[in-house]
């Protein structure tokens, strides 16, 4: 079984047999077709699949798996999922192919059966829900045009916006101002604004997101308000999904994932757990403890009717890898998004 987790910032590919044994696991750059284009996305996937097949000792030029389970950032609409399924299926990697949004892989990674709600906040923000009867609820997750608020890029942009307004007098005083001046190495953020406007500086808002969380943790009220707004949005996504599927009063798992949610030392997760308990008292909020590619692989194993014990064998393999990464001082891969 070939599993593909295609995120905005990284891509993971795994070959897994039906006993849950990992034959190969490779990582590469982000290749969301929405960001890099379909041709480039398929190129990256193809390179990683070929490398996984090589590591697994499979003969070149032949099918690498019975089934491909590809769960991708940017596959936000059913139409996009179908277009990607056709394009990936045409590569001939396997006899059958399933494609879905990567948030479904997060949900499966955090549950034993893929039933519940998953909210991811990494580069962007999204939420899906699956009821036990198979009904689903999801959001388009197309950015501001579809009503979204949140994600690393959005929050990083908010940090700059608030600091610039503090500097020019339109906004409240905030410790974000000296923090961002130090980050850019300037005496005034007006210099940064001018250089970005003139095309002399490429502005990437994502590194400013963890900076905002640091400033908020130190007690800054302006930064703290942004964190509170994120908590509100995560709770809103989860509670609306639970309400639409009539699950607010049911025992259900809510899975949280993505670097913005899981990489903040519990600042967001703890608040989400407390707020959601008021709305859905029987819900269990759980932070995913394995990489999203595990969820893609599990969905693939589900499709193939995997052998008993395959799921735990697969989970144990990745938990061992995460433990090894942590012991070596590496960043756990399960917190990406």
Automatic annotation (TrEMBL):
Keywords: Kinase, Transferase. Pfam families: BcrAD_BadFG. Residues 4-300 form the ATPase BadF/BadG/BcrA/BcrD type domain. It comes from the Bacteria. GO terms for molecular function: kinase activity. PANTHER family: N-ACETYL-D-GLUCOSAMINE KINASE. This is N-acetylglucosamine kinase. It comes from Saccharothrix coeruleofusca.
């Amino acid at each position: 079984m070939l599993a593909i987790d295609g995120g905005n910032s990284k891509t993971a590919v795994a070959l897994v047999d039906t006993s849950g044994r990992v034959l190969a696991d490779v990582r590469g750059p982000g290749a969301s077709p929405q960001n890099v284009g379909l041709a480039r996305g398929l190129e990256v996937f193809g390179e990683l699949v070929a490398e996984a097949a090589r590591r697994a000792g499979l003969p070149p030029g032949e099918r690498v798996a019975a089934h491909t389970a590809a769960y991708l950032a940017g596959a936000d609409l059913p139409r996009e999922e179908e277009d990607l399924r056709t394009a990936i299926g045409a590569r001939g990697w396997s006899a059958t192919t399933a494609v879905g949004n990567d948030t479904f892989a997060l949900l499966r990674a955090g549950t034993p059966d893929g039933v519940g709600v998953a909210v991811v906040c990494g580069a962007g923000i999204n939420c899906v829900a699956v009821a036990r009867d198979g009904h689903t609820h999801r959001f388009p997750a197309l950015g501001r045009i579809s009503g979204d608020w949140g994600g690393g890029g959005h929050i990083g942009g908010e940090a700059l916006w608030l600091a610039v307004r503090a500097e020019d007098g339109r906004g409240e005083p905030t410790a974000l101002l000296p923090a961002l001046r130090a980050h850019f190495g300037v005496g005034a953020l007006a210099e940064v604004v001018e250089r970005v406007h003139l095309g002399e500086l490429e502005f990437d808002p994502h590194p400013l997101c963890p900076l905002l969380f640091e400033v908020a943790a130190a007690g800054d009220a302006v930064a703290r308000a942004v964190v509170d707004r994120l908590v509100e949005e995560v709770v809103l996504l989860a509670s609306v999904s639970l309400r639409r599927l009539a699950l607010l009063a049911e025992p259900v798992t809510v899975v949280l994932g993505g670097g913005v949610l899981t990489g903040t030392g519990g600042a967001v997760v703890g608040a989400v757990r407390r707020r959601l308990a008021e709305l859905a008292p029987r819900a269990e909020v759980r932070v995913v403890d394995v990489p999203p590619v595990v969820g893609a692989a599990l969905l693939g194993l589900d499709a193939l009717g995997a052998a008993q014990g395959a799921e735990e064998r697969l989970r144990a393999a990745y938990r061992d890898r995460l433990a090894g990464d942590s012991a070596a001082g590496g960043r756990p891969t399960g917190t990406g998004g």
